[in-house]
Design goal:
Elements lengths: L5 H9 L3 H10 L7 H9 L2 E7 L5 E7 L6 E4 L2 E6 L7 H8 L2 E8 L4 E12 L13 E13 L25 E2 L24 E2 L1
Parallel strand pairs: 8-9
Antiparallel strand pairs: 1-2, 1-5, 3-4, 4-7, 5-6, 6-7
Length: about 200
Amino acid sequence: MALYHEGSRRLQDRFDTRRLADRIDERLVRETIDDDDRAFIEARDMFFIATADEEGRPQCSYKGGDPGFVRVLDERTIAFPGYDGNGMYLTFGNTLVNPHVGLLFIDFEGRKRLRLNGVASIDEDDELLAEYPEAQFVVRVRATEVFPNCPRYIHEYRLVQRSRFVPKAEYRTPVPKWKRAEWSRDALPEGDPAQDPDAEVLR
């Protein structure tokens, strides 16, 4: 699958970057995940994922967890959990009708980023499911393009605190305050932890 299309080429020619773009494609873009990529991906505690539906309408989403929640299974495959969210399933619903996805991993402290494009699948019975407490399913992505991205515009940030909502083994995950709001509480799915009056509630 070609990385560039007519729109990319039009702008490359307008700004005289076709030679540079071809050199980057030749030297940096690959289909496999190497050892450095693996270490970088598995050290991240978040990533952004872009999807589109069958008509090409896009969604972009943030996914967070503890470091290592994205696993590199082999040189072409990564996996990560699908946790409870707001119930809209915009991102993962898109993957069921259009499995092509783009992931962006960023190290804000080290000012480094990596793109991974590929084809996603969702499995509610994946063998890894038991290793992700409270996950609803596991998403696997088979890589088609893996490449570093220019870091010059990455702002340097420091981690203050990881989200307390990330599920952990032998840990009672708090519920978000919005699930106790008048507008949402009667529409929650059956068995939602927010229906437990003893659950810890956080903003």
